[in-house]
Amino acid sequence: MTTSPLALPFPDLPPVSGVMLRVARAHYKAWDRCDLTFAELTPGTIVAGVLTQSRCPSPEVEWCRQALVLGRARALVVNAGNSNAFTGKRGRAAVEAIAARVAVQLGCQPSDVFVASTGVIGVPLPIDKAEAGLDAAFVAAPCGWREAADAIGTTDTFPKGATTTAMVDGRTVTLVGIIKGSGMIAPDMATMLGFVFTDVACEPAFLQAALAAANARSFSCITVDGDTSTSDTVLAFATGAAGNAPLVDHDCPGADAFRAALADLCRQLALLVVRDGEGASKLIEVQVTGAESDRSAHVIAMSIANSPLVKTAIAGGDANWGRVVMAVGKAGEPAERDRLSIRFGNTQVARDGLAVEGYDETPVSAHLAGQEVEIGVELGLGDGRATVWTCDLTHGYISINADYRS
């Protein structure tokens, strides 16, 4: 596949103390590439996560949901090319076999092993390939973040990673994340598969609360096609190797700095997914203000971002603000036609329920011709606001998904 025109170079990511990465070929599909990622985590590592709200989740999601209750982790295994979703008892058996094999290797409990898979739905993950891939990973040389990011991709056209730091208890804490995602993106919690690693020392409850807050402003604010995956998983692992006084609650010194850094990292990762939206040529930011509540603003923003008519208009550089009006009206949230205002970039095109008389479409056309497009909607009802991100809808999306299994 051709690399997305919105792609960003893979950054130089620092190591995170307590995390060792390896990749291997399990041959889940007929491709010549690594498709199994194994992350070994130092004893004492804690974990938090957000998982898909799909009513048809994969066995991996169910396994992680149960294991998260304990709040500890020793390993992460990620399989690409086969989501193992909708596979009944055979799918669950594969997850249990993976966790058991890693537990024996590391001398830990199976519940300390987190498993995630991505790819085709409805095909059981072959246990023999999983075990052979793990055996290869156990003896493989440690690798870097780039190799790990490459190995977890499916229809991704470029590897995705980000990093940031925070000062906690007088120490510099490192955060690194990798993520995969390109299509089937409209999460109620996360986006496809994303993994954050940090050396901060903290309690599981603190990390869970921080991740949930970061997720609400990042992964849950992106959409490519309106489809929530059966496998969406975001996990955060904290090794404690930084040696800071453990963060227990939001009143601890450095807690705010860490929360801000985690939120920044998650936003970076989420936008990388939108930049790699299947067939995407433009990154679209939708800002809704003046709603009755933040929740209402979010629903309206997502209605705009998920509208095929809005997305195709942007793909064609057409400032068809009537389609934005349509998307606001269908959202089912409070809106008054005669208070509604719309802008593209910095140019107001509609105000108080009417087109702005005589507005110059030249700067609008120039704005829509760029790779980053901003749509602003003011409802004039209250203080609620939300920002979400999406991409345009092109013929490329159809081509990729029409041929996905073949």
Largest sheet: 6 strands, mixed
Query: Within the largest sheet, what's the order of strands?
Result: 13-12-11-14-10-15
Discrete helix count: 11
Show unreliable segments: none
Helix content: 25-40%
What is the strand content?
15-25%
Distance between the termini: 14 Å
**Globular, elongated, flat, extended or rod-shaped: what is the shape?**
globular
CATH architecture call of the largest domain: 4-Layer Sandwich
Number of domains: 2
Q: What letter string, H or E per element, gives the SSE order?
A: EEEHEHEHHEEEHEHEHHHEEEHEEH
CATH superfamily of the largest domain: L-amino peptidase D-ALA esterase/amidase
Structural class comes to: alpha+beta
Mean pLDDT: 93
Taking Cα atoms only, what radius of gyration do you get, to the nearest Å? 22 Å
Number of strands: 15
CATH topology call of the largest domain: L-amino peptidase D-ALA esterase/amidase
CATH class of the largest domain: Alpha Beta
Please specify the SSE layout and strand pairing.
Blueprint: E1 19-24, E2 36-41, E3 46-51, H1 59-68, E4 75-82, H2 88-106, E5 113-120, H3 127-139, H4 145-151, E6 160-168, E7 171-180, E8 193-198, H5 204-216, E9 233-238, H6 255-275, E10 283-291, H7 294-305, H8 308-315, H9 321-330, E11 341-344, E12 347-351, E13 354-355, H10 362-369, E14 372-378, E15 384-391, H11 395-402
Helix pairs in contact: 2-3, 5-6, 7-9
Summarize the entry for a quick read.
By secondary structure, this protein is α+β, with helices and mostly antiparallel strands.
